[in-house]
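Methods — Computational structure assignment.
A single polypeptide chain was analysed. Its primary sequence is given first, followed by the predicted tertiary structure written as structure tokens.
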Amino acid sequence: MVARRAAELEALAEELRLVGGAVLTFTGDAQEPGFLDRVVRETSDRFGALNGLAVVASPMGARAAFLDLRDEDWDFYFRVGTMITVRACRAAIPALVKDSGSAIVLTSAYSIRAQKPDLVAYTAMKTSVAAIAKNLAKSHGGRGVRVNCIAPGVIERSVADSEILSQRYGVAVERARYEHVHRQFGMNVALERAGRHEEFADLVAFLLSARASYITGATINIDGGTDF
């Protein structure tokens, strides 16, 4: 597992170890040259092979209309959206092709099918991630590597955040995050709630597993029925 925040990363790793997981953690910035190459090398050395890759990094930068965005805003989304995905796949694929049946899961966003004026830069780069997934699925499928992409909608941040929003809007905690995005951004979700972290994790785990052995090149919505 790779993340920038050491304390949160180690806390999650410890939870997994308590249920019998073998976990190797790396704290650092995936934008740093050579960092992901080291991650792949040390992971392969530790476990004997690399069988899967999930790229979920997706920091949010400026939200603004097209004419209000600066070059720096576009560059931010390019670096943290497109290029982190590129670097991770470039580092991992040489190891993944050694194991027939390996898989990659990339993360796009529901907004690639629902354009928002203030998300043009974010959405452009998330669209590039979906394109990369489809291209890699085609170009490396013959060597046994499956590549899929998930397109998440609204995600819960934390219990504390939902409780604050619940009090603000006078709604149940499970509805609070959805209520916020519905009022602030006009989003409509059929299930009228945000997605839980485990729901997204389950989809990623399924796509990485042998149960999804005939699924590749797909971009799968996980958005509770968000209007497109």
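Note: The chain has two domains: 31-153+202-222, 154-194.
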